[in-house]
Amino acid sequence: MTSLSTRLRKEPAHASLSPLLRLLILTQLAFNLGFFAVLPFLSEHLGQAMGMAGWLVGLVLGLRTFSQQGLFLVGGALADRYGIRPVVLAGCVLRIAGFAWLGYAEATWAVIGAVLLIGFAAALFSPAVESEVARQAVAWESAGGGSRTRVLALFTVAGQAGAFVGPLLGALLLSVDFRTVCLAGAGIFVLVLAGHAWLLPQHIPGRERVQVRGGLGALLRNRRFLALCCAYGAYLLAYNQLYLALPDEVQRAAGSQAPLAWLFALSSLLVVTAQLPVTRWVGDRLDLRRSMVSGLLLIAAGFAVVAVARPAGWTGTPGLLPAAGFVVLLTLGQMLVAPVARAWVPDLAEEGRLGLYTGALSSVSGLIVLVGSAATGTLLDSGLPAVVPWLVLAAVPACAIGLLPRR
To answer: Which UniProt keywords apply (predicted)?
Structure first.
């Protein structure tokens, strides 16, 4: 795999990226490395080792996503008020505590407490980092460096590079036990905390701090922004099925979840190698709305592939092919949707409130995932024909197209 630093050197358009942008992009890589060493194996741990019912597993995963995505609003507002450094450092401390707690949690309440802490940690550091990357990308675009979408695509590549290595590391450590995986994830965030305490600036030029109060009312009246949030939430609910519906399908086809790490690796490798060329190609041909429409249609097609193949009941290697097709199409859709949604936010945000709006994008989607994950877990355990849940999931991103702002 081409390293991120090599990719930065080979990409002339990004030669003028500031040291701060480079640090923030590498931050995303480190965050995801620690996070994805643990998360892909949480569903199996809850269902198999702890014996939780499908609806409860879905609810726990949804609570994790909601405590992260749903509380981005809080983290973004705090970043606007206090700057990104204290918020990022506090989030790292909470993530370390959450992973350590999860490793030793044996009761349902303890698991829920740990995943809520893990999620809230990201609700602090992620909107701070993402909003500053978006702000720096707009400044870079204004200075003639190129499209802001390309910077945000590079940010996505860095995250997926971490998501590529993370599950492989987690799968290796899982041969010991799940606790070891959690403690390794905590250890990675200890290193992240130390590095950012040293490198992250106390004050970033051009970023003015604002009061927490006063921005939410204008946000709630911004219909175009809220429409974008809902469409993005539908995408995130679909993406969350990598951790809920996909493990069930892999277990059915292969008799174990061993191939799951390789499917996650496939997704991450696609983003790392193809995100920048895809962003460049699409940026020359499609506007923001058409790019998101194309991405949502690809995601819907991924669910449809599994739905069409499911009645055949294939197992073994043939049985894994629809799952692989789902992962590929979902990932291609993600390449179109995720950077474009982030690139759209600065045009819709109130002056000085980019952290709040970046957080709100994830908060609305987190609420959708909370409700949708519990419903999906129930649907998967309902005893309905196997094709039904996948067709329902295919309809979610397809219907979300109608929510996108027209202008």
So the answer is: Cell membrane, Membrane, Transmembrane, Transmembrane helix, Transport
